Amino acid sequence: MRHVHLGNKESFFQTEKESTGLYAELSQKGVQMCEAVLWLGSHLHIREDGTGWLEGPIPQSDLAFYARFFIGLGNEATVKHPPELVLYMKRLFAEIMSKYD
Hints:
alpha+beta, 4 strands, globular
């Protein structure tokens, strides 16, 4: 395990779980928020204008975690893929909204 580090951990541990492709667009503020999250480093891509995107494999078993993470980013992120993540986020939004009826 000595050769495993943050830069390559996904290639070692991703094979254990079924994964899916993540793609989310980020505003400039969204990029800044994601830069502070160390585990996103290999997924974060930044454009010259300061906007960016997150792209890469994520474990399907972690969709609930990612849904809550992206909801926390608010309007600063738009998840495009996977559709299962978008549906999970919609369910969470519905649960949140039902509390305020």
